[in-house]
Each structure stands twice: as structure tokens, then as C-alpha cells.
Amino acid sequence: MIKIKIDVTKIEKARLFKGKPRDGKTPMYLDAVLIETKQSNFGDWRDDQTHMIVQDVSKEERDKGVKGPIIGNATDTGKRRTNDKPPAAPAPAETASPIEDDDVPF
What we know:
Elements: E1 2-6, E2 17-18, E3 28-29, E4 32-36, E5 51-55, H1 59-63, E6 70-76
Antiparallel strand pairs: 1-6, 2-3, 4-5, 5-6
């Protein structure tokens, strides 16, 4: 599971776009990119944060060097830290006996 936190005040509203209307409502969307971070030295961000969330830009803009604003961060709650011990090896699974065709209820 990855938990995210977005500062909605940093979203460039001009990049929001409308989806197809459904149920009498038109949804609004935001394209964003989740980027894994190697270090967590981002000011007020906590040390356990493993990703940053960046508002996406078009391919043409990326080609020109335009970068979207950092709008948040995320924590991979299942990610193992380098100082953590590796998980124990799972116990070997027992082999299930084959099912005879007569045992199948359909």
C-alpha cells in the first residue's frame, strides 16, 4: 500500500481536465507522476516518505525541460528500509493432492 498526501494549493488548476459526463456530473481529473526518491531531504517532509508526487506536463513540455510542480509525497508502507532485516523465508508449501474428476461438483 502506498499512502499519499497532496497539497492541493500547489496544483496548477489550468492543467485539470474534464472527463466524460456520467450520472449528470462531469468529473475533473489531474494527471500526476509518482517518483521514487533515493533520499528524503525535502524540507518539511518526513524521513519515511519514499516518493514525491509531481503534477504531470505534456510530452512537448517535458522535451523543452518544463517540470510540473511537486504537489505532495507518498509513503510505501510495505517498503523495506536498508537497515531492516530481510523477511524470513516462507515455510515450504504442502503439495495438494490432485482432484479426481468425480469430485468436481459440475
